[in-house]
Amino acid sequence: MTSASSGAPNFPAPSGPPAYPAPSGPPAMSAYGATASVVGEPTRPTIPLNKLAPEAALRRLELAIVRRLEGYLHGDHLGLLPGPGSDANDARVYQPGEDDVRRIDWAVTARTTVPYVRDTIADRELEVWALLDVTPSMNWGTEGVTKRDLGIAAVATIGFLSQKMGDRFGGYVMRPDRLRRLPARSGRSALYGLLRTMLTEPFVPDHATGSMSLAASVEQLSRHQRRRGLKVVVSDFLTPGDHELDPNVEPEWERPMRRLGVRNQVLAIEVVDKREVEFPDVGDMLIRDPETDFERYVNTADANARARMDAASAAQRERIRIALRRAGVGHIQLRTDRDWVQDIARFVLAYRRVAALLHQPPQGVEK
């Protein structure tokens, strides 16, 4: 099914400034509300940088990291290599002159009558990479914020939740023709710089073509960022021309997501607009896809037509949910008509209980 988020009601375009006002814009444009957000292509962000994520509300939360990490700085996350830390590792025979006698494991020594020492696992720093989808289908929203800007807000929230001393945060921006890399850096200022770059990334016009897809982008992320860490994929997970609704048919991005999760802890953030899943009763409406040539008028005053469209949209979203679950990644759905900070906070609190089970590595792969 072609995404309803690609469609736009056939409203008359308002005159005056660009049809995508910022929240702090003049009252005249703010009065258009949802209408102004669907009649034209965006020209500027709908969320200012200082409103992306309230840091004060996130200070008591922490995103659970359960996969072991590679790094060099001692931090708050479990590493792969033995070294100074508090997490116990295997016991080994004591080597005189090399091992500290204070690390002798007396219980094992008493059972074997041979001196053993207990190694510990070093704590390491975390490296987070976020892949943000900015293709034309993300330039749409009916609740005062676009899916693209909601995705950036999700990246900001995850950044604030996961960042500690020495941790680094980097990003990739997926356009139809290329994948732009934003280097990983540590510190709050570097995170704000990355978010500012994402907000000011030029908007992709409708019907822009290119060879880059979500599957290819995830594949490149997995291939280029070999270091273990947290990977975040932010998208609507809609593939142009994919009309399949059967959950047993894998989307093309499912296998790359599964491969990405072999070495990393992966979190998929699905951004959805309200009118993608709840079609309004506004009479004749032009449904158009900004990524393909699909266009069709639909009479939304027909209750049966709305029910069929809502059912198809629900099946589409269910297929995405099942595919992400099969891939073994964390999944959170954010909607433009809801408080994304509250939704992420609720997810993080529940994630602590299921993260270790959800992100079990494949058999034969070290955790």
UniProtKB/TrEMBL annotation:
- The DUF58 domain is annotated at 90-318
Residue ranges annotated as compositionally biased, kind Pro residues, are 11-24
Q: Where is this region: Disordered?
A: 1-24
Tree of life domain:
Bacteria
InterPro entries associated with the record = DUF58
Which portions of the chain have biased composition (kind: Low complexity)? Answer: 1-10
Pfam families the UniProt entry points to: DUF58
Task: List the PANTHER family.
Answer: BLL2464 PROTEIN
- For this entry, the protein name equals DUF58 domain-containing protein
